[in-house]
Amino acid sequence: MSSLLRLKGQVFVLTLAALLAGCRSEFDHRAVDLDDEFARASNLGQPMIVLVTESGASRADDRARSLFQTMAAKGESEKFAPIVLDLSVSRNRAVAARFHVTNTPLLLGLTPRGLIVTRDEKPITKSLLLHRIAEVARRGDELDARLASLEDAAARDRNDATAQWQLANFLLAQQNMREAIPILRLIARAESADTALRVRAWVELARAHLWIAEPEKGRHEAEDLIAVLGPKAPAARAGGNLVLGVQDANAKHLALARRELQAAIAAAPESDYANQAEETLAKIPGEGK
């Protein structure tokens, strides 16, 4: 009997080890096709939990990834689609750019349609993970239904800039910048649309590119805004120069940033863009170079 028990114990240990090894091969050092993962979760109606981490970068990264492995081994992942983006894989770094990753581990909760519901940049615990799974499940249906309604309204008339803006603004509020970009571009280029709305959409378009780590595209959009709408709309000059100034301030091109922010203030002193430029300008130390 004791030999049989030992044999059963050995089989259990080997089975568990194989299962955990399978989780490691699934989650570690693998290039992820995020669009495919999103499509699969959408078809299943599953909310998604995305963990952005980097193997060996810190204890917090490794512990968060280990937590995902453990929960998958216990069958917890039936409640959500677990997706791990390991930034030690170069392709994953490009994929993760849409989430504006500044620190790891980063935990994101998404609806089945890919709307970002939660974002956490603190140590990832089992309690936090379970709480976020429940939160996304609770809010996901309502958010996805709202998205579908706005998409339907925008699809009925692509020339209805107001309907397009409502959809884009909803995506911006969820920090789905990548998904908002084509809609913002449509509004910005719509010559028949209200100029003020075009300016607002164009500024957000430039900012969205910067958010998802496309600085050159963001800069080109800001410059195009100034060139196209700037001659007749002071707010366009203010908004465009604000985006350029913030970008250059973040890149430590302080003298250039100062000039751009000052230009934003001078163009439309009473605008929100001027107020934001003043706030940014006040944070720039010294004279810079």
Walk me through what this model shows.
With about 290 residues, this protein is of the alpha+beta class. Helices cover about 65% and strands about 10% of the residues. Strands 2-1-3-4 form a 4-stranded mixed sheet, with helices on both faces. Strand 3 and strand 4 form a beta hairpin. Helix 8 (about 195-210) runs antiparallel to helix 9 (about 215-230).
Write the layout of secondary structure elements.
Elements: H1 2-27, H2 34-44, E1 48-53, H3 59-73, E2 81-86, H4 90-96, E3 106-110, E4 116-120, H5 126-156, H6 161-173, H7 177-189, H8 195-211, H9 215-229, H10 234-250, H11 254-267, H12 272-282
Parallel strand pairs: 1-2
Antiparallel strand pairs: 1-3, 3-4
Would you kindly provide a brief summary of this structure?
The protein is an alpha+beta fold and 289 residues long. It has helices spanning 2-27, 34-44, 59-73, 90-96, 126-156, 161-173, 177-189, 195-211, 215-229, 234-250, 254-267, 272-282; strands at 48-53, 81-86, 106-110, 116-120.
Keywords:
disordered N terminus, 4 strands, Serine Threonine Protein Phosphatase 5, Tetratricopeptide repeat, 4-stranded mixed beta sheet, 12 helices, 2 domains, alpha+beta, single chain, Glutaredoxin, 289 residues
